[in-house]
Recover the amino acids of this structure.
């Protein structure tokens, strides 16, 4: 029997999330650029212009403040680059300005990304003391040979030590970023990596396959990686291990120890909520009475600083078309195991599900979507070929779509 597509929000659907939003702050410098990385990151100069850059970020927040006067800031994500190159004093100044500029919930989630190669116990304690609640460690592997192949600056022992420092600093939650499908990695090697990460029992774990992104050294000179048969076995084994140790897969590459340990900031992206991105190369997705708008800031740190210091906006802005909005909604929400409700679709796109009912029905008939009165989500089969499912919603002309900032967790 064909599924019935609910085109009206049903009583009991999730409450509005329109007034909540997240703040992404980009700190663009790294000790060294990894050969697989396509993020907007730049090799750090001998002396990072830390306070000059922080002053620019604070100016951006002051300028954006009126736009968010009646909206609740629920999460801040300090990403990069390598935010742990910045001092606790710099992070404190950033967070103080955020609290001055925006109404913030008392339990706001504040995440900082850290590279184990730049980890220091006192610095971690300093971040915690100025208000950072979550620490996300870019471990990637516990195998020194794999780390060298990835161009990482840290060793396996430094990764272990960084995790212990994070625990000692008493962050409310720790995340471990772990990759698989690495150059020269075997099935047994991937299993050892995941087993060690799970033994640490972090509140959250981001687990994702190495991909060769256009423009990176790995894309132009691909390393030898596990074949599809091995990758499938790694993924099957990982699924069983996560389930056995009490981790819930709530998004394609995100696992949490209980639903309360999900990454609130990334959930905002995946539920197609609003976010403001500040800093070099950051981008934003913002809704107002005239539609949904995208902003992209000047990519290179020197250009970004020059623009802000000249009292320019430092970003380009444009409005999305209806078909772009629909595509971005499905691109994000279908990554979540929870899927979405008709109410959420209407809140976040301003449209009724009737606009996409034919496509939803086609996917349901193919066994790729699971439809009920209150919820629509991918089936297990659909989740396995998610890119193909999302492709059904591709707009005929995509002029302004941007993926969310890369925030593994």
């Amino acid at each position: 029997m064909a599924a019935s597509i609910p085109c009206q929000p049903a009583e009991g659907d999730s409450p509005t999330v329109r007034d909540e939003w997240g703040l992404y702050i980009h700190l663009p410098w790294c000790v060294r650029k990894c050969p697989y990385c396509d993020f907007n990151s730049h090799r750090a100069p001998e002396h990072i212009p830390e306070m000059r850059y922080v002053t620019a970020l604070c100016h951006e927040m002051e300028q954006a403040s009126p736009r968010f006067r009646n909206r609740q800031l629920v999460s801040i994500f300090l990403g990069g680059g390598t935010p742990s190159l910045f001092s606790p004093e710099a992070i404190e100044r950033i967070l103080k300005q955020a609290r001055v500029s925006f109404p913030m919930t008392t339990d706001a989630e504040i995440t900082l990304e850290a590279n184990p190669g730049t980890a220091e116990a006192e610095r971690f304690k300093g971040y915690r003391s100025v208000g950072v609640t979550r620490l996300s460690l870019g471990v990637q592997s516990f195998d020194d040979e794999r780390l060298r192949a990835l161009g990482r600056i840290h060793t396996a022992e430094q990764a272990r030590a960084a995790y212990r420092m994070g625990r000692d600093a008493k962050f409310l939650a720790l995340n471990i970023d772990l990759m698989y499908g690495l150059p020269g990695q075997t099935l047994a090697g991937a299993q050892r990596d995941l087993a060690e990460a799970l033994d640490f029992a972090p509140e959250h774990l981001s687990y994702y396959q190495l991909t060769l992104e256009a423009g990176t050294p790995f894309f132009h000179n691909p390393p030898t990686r596990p074949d599809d048969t091995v990758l499938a076995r790694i993924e099957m084994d990982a699924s069983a291990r996560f389930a056995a140790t009490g981790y819930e897969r709530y998004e394609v590459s995100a696992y949490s120890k209980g639903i309360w340990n999900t990454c609130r900031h990334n959930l905002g992206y995946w539920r197609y909520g609003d976010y403001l991105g500040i800093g070099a190369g950051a981008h934003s997705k913002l809704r107002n009475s005239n539609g949904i708008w995208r902003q992209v800031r000047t990519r290179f740190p020197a250009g970004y600083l020059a623009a802000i210091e000249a009292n320019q906006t430092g970003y380009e802005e444009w409005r999305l078309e209806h078909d772009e909005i629909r595509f971005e909604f499905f691109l994000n929400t279908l990554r979540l195991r929870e899927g979405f409700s008709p109410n959420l679709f209407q809140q976040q796109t301003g449209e009724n599900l009737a606009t996409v009912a034919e496509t939803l029905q086609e996917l349901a008939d193919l066994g790729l979507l699971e439809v009920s009165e209150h919820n629509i989500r991918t089936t297990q089969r659909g989740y396995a070929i998610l890119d193909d499912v999302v492709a059904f919603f591709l707009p005929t002309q995509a002029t302004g779509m941007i993926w969310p900032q890369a925030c593994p967790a």
User: Anything to note?
Assistant: Residues 228-244 form the longest helix (17 residues). Confidence is low (pLDDT under 50) at residues 9-16. The first strand starts at residue 20 and ends at 27.
